[in-house]
Design brief:
4 strands; alpha+beta; 38% helix; four-stranded antiparallel sheet; 3 helices
Length: 93
């Protein structure tokens, strides 16, 4: 499985209530279960009018299909090539 970051423009999402975010997450979970085992939702980050969602998926087409079925926009889908963090600087890898 490959890792993908999906950028979505959703006006007002940063002001969503816990109940509204719960509803969005429920939709995501339902669609992921329909496409299982080809996709897994890892996490989403919500900021102002955007969300950034991290998925494991077999390919970009599966991520795009997920967005279509869920009715979520997918402004940009990017495959992650590497992950770095503070430990990376210390270990030299």
């Amino acid at each position: 499985m490959r890792k993908f970051l999906v950028e979505r423009t959703i006006p007002g999402i940063g002001l969503a209530t816990g109940e509204e975010l719960h509803a969005v997450a429920a939709i995501d979970n339902r669609i992921v279960s329909e496409l299982w085992p080809d996709i897994q939702w890892l996490t989403s980050y919500i900021v102002n009018d955007k969300s950034y969602c991290l998925y494991l998926a077999k390919d970009e087409a599966t991520v795009r299909r997920h967005s279509e079925l869920a009715g979520f926009p997918s402004d940009r889908i990017s495959e992650l090539k590497a992950t770095i963090d503070p430990v990376t600087a210390k270990s030299g890898t």
